[in-house]
Amino acid sequence: MVKLSVNVNKVATLRNARGGNNPNVVHAAQTCVAAGCHGITVHPRPDGRHIRRHDVFDLAAVLTVEFNIEGYPSPEFLALVCQVRPTQCTLVPDPPDVLTSNAGWDLRGDVRWLRDVIQQLHDHGIRTSLFLEPDPDQVRRAKDLGTDRIELYTEPYARLFGTPEQQRTFDAYYQAALVAQEVGVGLNAGHDLNLNNLPYFAQHIPGLLEVSIGHALICDALYMGLSQAVKAYLRALGYPV
Length: 241
Hints:
The protein has helices at residues 9-18, 25-35, 53-62, 75-84, 112-123, 136-145, 155-160, 166-183, 198-204, 215-224, 226-236, and strands spanning 3-7, 39-42, 66-71, 88-91, 127-132, 149-153, 186-190, 208-213. By secondary structure, it is of the alpha/beta class. The protein has a single domain (3-236), classed as TIM Barrel (Alpha-Beta Barrel). It has an 8-stranded parallel β-barrel, surrounded by 7 helices. Helix 2 (25-35) packs parallel to helix 3, helix 2 (25-35) packs across helix 11 and helix 6 runs parallel beside helix 8. It is globular, with a radius of gyration of 17 Å.
């Protein structure tokens, strides 16, 4: 079944808005784990506007589930990841000032340097994933770079879910997933998935291993509580909770 990794960036955003340590990122992550999630995701950005460097170390010290650190592979980011050695590192092409991840890698240019980055992570025992658009050519190029997995950027699917364009958009994800299976790359997905659009995606994308969900889950937690929100997303994935 598809695993759920909860992105706790928004918990840190709320904490940082007031200062201090409330809400506590580690406590929130442990609450998610106790509710049944399979992993925790963070995205430490250079400006520290949500997850900060100390959060990464604090979480790594206590997590009993998979830890996924995502970010742009700058020297500083890679040094942090290689020191922490999470289960997975998801590489995204975000410039430092972007509000949130809003595009996958374009692997058609000279990105041979990414091969070296992936090898560096492998040398530290870290599974790698590249954030990608649902493009079969990009999936094949990702495989050639040596990545273990890809994470499909699902904002276009989420935005058009429930509209006449839903099926056309979904078909691109389906075809990308088939190519991932064909070339032997693991498949993750994330961005704007929520309780409405997640079940269809999870049920119909072949080979889907993991979804990373943060913003929508934390928003739902404001109404139903964090534990109940995690359980609602697990039910959306088909878990009997």
